[in-house]
Amino acid sequence: MNLSELIQKAQDYQPDQALLQHRKAGEQAFLERFPFHSLKEMSVEEYANTKTKDSFIYWLERKNVGPVGGGNASKFGIYMSQTGEYCKGAGKKREVLSGAALQTEYEKLRDGILQAVLYAKEGRFEEIEALQLPLFNTVLLEILNLYAPNQFFRLYRHEILVKVGQLVGLDPSLFVHKHAVRLNHEVLTALKQQPLLEDWTHERLARLIWDHFGGKNELTDEQNNYWLVEYSPKKESFKDFYISNSVIGLSDLHEDLSQVITSESFEQFLENRILEPRERKALKLFSQMKQGDTVAIKSTYSRKAEGKLQRVLKVAAVGRLLEDTVDGYKYDPVRGHLLPVEWTHINDLEYPTYGGFSQSINLVKDLGTIKHVFQLKPLEPKTFTASKPQELLNLPLNLALYGPPGTGKTYSVTERAMERIDSQVLEELKSDRESMQAEFSRLVKENRIKFVTFHQSYAYEDFIEGLKSDGHGGFFCEDGVIKRIAFEAMYAGLSQDYIPFNDRDYLSRKKAVLNALEDWRKFDFSKASPYVVIMDEMNRGNISKIFGELMTLLEEDKRLTSINELLIELPYSKEIFALPPNLYFIGTMNTADRSIALLDTALRRRFYFEEVMPEPDLLMPIGGIDISEMLRIMNRRIEVLYDRDHMIGHAYFTRAKSEQDIMDIIVNKVLPLLQEYFYGDWEKVGLVLGGIGKSEDDPYIVYEEKVQMQQLFRSPLKHHLKSLYRVKAKLGQQEIISIYDHTSV
Predict the structure, then answer these.
(1) Within a domain: 218
(2) Residues 6 or more apart in contact with residue 618 via CB below 8 angstroms
(3) CATH number, position 483
């Protein structure tokens, strides 16, 4: 999108007026509770005592004032922990404050906030940066926007501000996190210079930008989440109880959790209980529910429709949670864990294409699902065609996903294979990875999907066919992976005249296909079931040796029943062979192992190549660490020092749950990978990781140790000083942040 396209969209844009009014009311209520003149005398209790539900930071985070949201409390500089102690920092940097130290730290923070607001009103944004307040940018911008509303607008997502900044031609030097305040102001100023937008309110302008740049996988810029909570269709009484008593419930683990559910050790508590993974996940999600979240009680079930099994989501009621788990949690020995809710809609509605939400609790992030399910808008019935060959599905028969390690290529082939097998099932299961993986495993067991991994020793004999010893001095021809699945796929398109009476085993089905191949065009693949071959690490094998004559058959116009169909005789068995149009090939290639430029030209011509690159935006901040920015800057450095084929994928960090996890990944996964990339060139390794310290005390992961040679060796040496590069034995938050933020050094 360019600026003119954005202006064009603005001409017809109508924001949600109810949301704008809701936001305005929230701002007004906040300013009445905390007028600017009162901040100077505000105590630490008024600022940070969240247990009162009336503190400054509680209002910012919990009362729909702005998009601050929950999560790491250290974003407020000083906060109250679950134990009731005042703290600053997080993780290993967390420090408990009390007495004079607490008062000193708090007054410094409070006075800094006051000064930042005064600077903002005067447009002195660089001086705000110089204050170096211990607040997250989102928190600081929300405070400044509340008290200096003429200077900012409610759009704090950094990557969106950068996108708009690029559209309006701002100086790229503003596009770093430390300039977040200036960037927000400059984007607003540039947009208001457009004649169509100059009279728009700041809130309306923010909504326009968010609605067009926020992304389909985001909810809104509100901090509230959207939940689906299960009531079993076998327990209709539970549904009636929930509705009549205005509660939602979770029946996993019949044990009163009131003393532990909000504690920092809750996850460890669950690990010590005998629970299924799904139960443990549901309890963790339940503990994260908070006041203001939207929740629906639902059931999921299967039914037959037009001869096909259909998974259905049924929503009984929708409402908003009235309290957090901190104060609202109740335990019922029969119905389990309860939270109070105010119902806004009570009306059973079915959603046939959303049956994948089968967990006890689902956190819903897809905007389309939210609009339909939580607003209770009946859906138009969707029609799905049976899975068909490539010319009807409009999907490439031969697809290769290539990119650096850790970009999710192998992870995504599950979805790509399912897309070719049954698009309806894929749509239903997209929101439920566990169910989709179970369906994928079922198809593998049914031989509809074959998964192979290429390596240096993998050969034609494994892939297509080869001679094997019979153990008695003789040999027999054994069909390989591709030959077997190809015959199964051809059998699916076999005319009824050729289907044998007994087709339970592979050999009988293969014989029927061979008989049909002797005649001319006895196949019809228009309604044949699709089959998929997944070839992982494809470029690690000897492609020409593995594929052999299959290289020719891969071409789409050479497939069976195609215009230039080609049948060949295999070298070992002397059997006729072809590739059918309902057999799909999906390959993955790690470009760090071998660039696609080095692949066989014939293979490159026959496959549709799709690049899969790192997506840092998929990573959310953890604690005080912005993983997204960290990965982005590391990859930018790798691209400059090496090439883009050797970037680091986001999948390395997707399972990180804490700052310590990030540190472990850096040391145990990223660092060895960089050593391999740069062949022990520690200077480049250090550059990728933010720099090289002069001693172990510097906040860098890699530091330089000076060795006095004359002290180490008795004999005089030509060189008296040598540098050795070391990796710091113990990392902290600061070492990680220094990778991407040099202002922290």
Answers:
(1) no
(2) 628, 650, 654
(3) 3.40.50
